[in-house]
Amino acid sequence: MPPWLQLIHDSFWRLFTAGLCFTLPLALLSFFGGLLLGFLVTLIRLYGSRYLKWIANVYVWIIRGTPLLVQLFLIFYGLPSVGITLNAFPAALIGFTLNVGAYSSEILRGAIISVPKTQWEAAWAIGMNSTQAMRRVILPQSIFVALPPLANSFISLIKDTSLAAVITVPEMFLAAQRIVSVTYEPLILYIEAAAIYLLYSTVLGKWQNQLESYFRRYE
């Protein structure tokens, strides 16, 4: 077996396991946490008081206007300066959750306001209050609009988790870097890591298409 192929063989399971144990859990937890946060921020921006709207808009403005890498550095390396010290994984989880929350709030806000106002009026006409109208009429229709961009955001998040390596989360890219530091074969190892990221993204892309097809049946 050629040396480069032997290296791929020996390192594959280590990289793949790092992806399963850290990359995917980090992406899943931060995505669903960010989705809940984004939904809350969306409701505040659409229906909250002026003061709450201002806070929510500033949050979205700051997160969308600054690099994710800088946000991770501020949380992991900056907060200890004010007495708040976090381990690497929780720091990354907070950073990604805040980032996903800001972007998903824009997606959800756009999906909700895309539902015609007549749908609200129809719900009120049959005796629903605003909460019932939102839950039973508006949100189900918003899913069709929000699903594709949210799924794309999740796939992008899988790749963005590689940034967690800079704050020492032992995810897949950091595992590749550590092997490179011993083998001095960056080209092979980074191509292998890229191929595994591509594998994850491809599988998730297939699931996205199936999910969209499932919901499309109810249009």
TrEMBL record:
Q: Which Pfam families match?
A: BPD_transp_1
Record's bilayer topology term: Multi-pass membrane protein
Cited Gene3D superfamilies: MetI-like
Q: Which GO terms fall under molecular function for this chain's record?
A: L-cystine transmembrane transporter activity
| ABC transmembrane type-1 domain sequence ranges | 20-200
For this protein, the record's PROSITE patterns field holds: ABC_TM1 (PS50928)
For this entry, the protein name equals Cysteine ABC transporter permease
